[in-house]
Fold this sequence. Notes:
single chain
Amino acid sequence: MEVTEKLLVAKSKKGNIDAFEELISGYEKKAYNIAYRIMGNEEDAKDMAQEAFIKIYKSIQNFREESSFSTWLYRIVTNVCLDELRKRKKANLVPLEMNIETDKGSAIIELSAEKETPEDICERVEKKELIQNAISSLAEDYKTVIILRDIQGFGYEEIATMLNCSLGTIKSRINRARNLLKDKLRHELELYEKKSV
């Protein structure tokens, strides 16, 4: 941890709200992104990120500074989301699927320098939906490691710390998750190609 962050952590542990807000300000966007990938929609992601920050504020005394603050923070965000999904399963609620919203809502479409036709844009959005739906359909353990490693870019050691698992377990889960995802995508893309013809 850098000196400024250590100082902010120390002040936050003493109850300084301004220091805490400054401490988490650099992590808000990534925390939201993790929550969005796990929860699958904007509203739940905002709620879960907010809940995680409240939990972090209340439990900052427990941060022992053995890992980086960011790893500790992202672990809490991940766990808050996973706990919510478990509660929903127990209540027989189906978690919302991760979708890139199209005509049903808003889609963030980055246009390339080349001119894209509406058909090109539609096809790209549909493929993104296929990928996100495939990720969403994975079992919770596999979905989480794929999101943390391949989408958010965390290292294996960081993920092991966040999920409180051994490094070997994380590597095994990521390998298995990637294979499952590859099979699902191959199948879905074959169906997509047939449908497009």
